[in-house]
Design brief:
It contains 8 helices and 7 strands. Strand 3 (61-64), helix 3 (73-79) and strand 4 (82-85) form a beta-alpha-beta unit. It has a single domain (3-208), classed as Glycerol-3-phosphate (1)-acyltransferase (3-Layer(aba) Sandwich), CATH 3.40.1130. It has a 5-stranded mixed β-sheet, with helices on both faces. Strands 3-4 form a two-stranded parallel sheet. By secondary structure, the chain is of the alpha/beta class. Helix 1 packs across helix 2 (47-53) and helix 5 (129-135) packs across helix 8 (185-204). The radius of gyration is 17 Å and the shape is globular. The longest helix is centred in the last third of the chain and has 20 residues, at 185-204. Helix content is 38%, strand content 15%.
């Protein structure tokens, strides 16, 4: 962890434990070393720091590319291991930045929905997550967060409400990746979509915290 990351990580742990009565389930399912994709639903602005402070290893976050050119936000984001991507998250340069981090053995947090939910329900995933999954060799850990009641779109400021995060078992897409390496180009789109759907289904099957494992 960089000094800035450690400070932000420590402050986030304190805030979530004391203000949001956070519950963290199965963080041990996230590998402590090596590349890994954390694929999470997106309920509020609290999600990135909540997921990050729930794990003992540093993770990388996605941030809008234009923010890195600002003299203030640029160094701050770099110190937090942020990855520059375009607004849609599907640009070629953004994908390269993601794959470079994974090739370096890092963990990276991705929100397949692309933006926060408006009603607390999961949205359909954007195109691009399946491509990132199959282009990498990293396992994918599905992550489910419950932060909507604390800071959903309908709240102007965060509320002191219980939050929870649950980490699923890693998914390996080895056979699908092998197929993607030899299949005709027209079939690739189908494989990308299949990887996306399997990832979203795994996130959705993580039951609410009060329901158990």
């Amino acid at each position: 962890m960089t000094p800035l990351y450690w400070l932000a990580w420590s402050a986030s742990r304190m805030l979530f434990r004391n203000l949001f009565r956070c519950r963290v389930y199965h963080p041990e399912r996230v590998p402590l070393t090596g590349s890994v994709i954390l694929a999470a639903n997106h309920e509020s602005y609290l999600d990135p720091p909540f997921v990050g402070c729930s794990l003992p290893r540093p993770i990388n976050y996605l941030a809008r590319e234009d923010l890195f050119s600002n003299r203030l936000s640029g160094p701050f984001l770099r110190g937090l291991n942020s990855v520059p991507v375009d607004r849609s998250g599907g640009g070629a340069r953004g994908l390269k930045n993601i794959l470079d981090r994974l090739l370096n053995g890092d963990a990276i947090l991705i929100f397949p929905e692309g933006t926060r939910t408006r009603d607390g329900e999961m949205k359909a995933a954007q195109a691009g997550i399946g491509l990132a999954i199959l282009r990498s060799r990293a396992p994918v850990v599905p992550v489910r967060v419950w932060t909507y009641n604390a800071y959903g779109r309908h709240h102007a400021v965060p509320r002191m409400a219980t939050t929870a995060v649950k980490f699923g078992r890693p998914i390996r897409f080895d056979s699908m990746r092998e197929r993607a390496g030899i299949c005709p180009r027209p079939e690739l789109r189908t494989l990308y979509q299949q990887a996306t759907e399997e990832t979203m289904a795994a996130i959705a099957t993580l039951r609410p915290a009060m329901d158990g494992a």
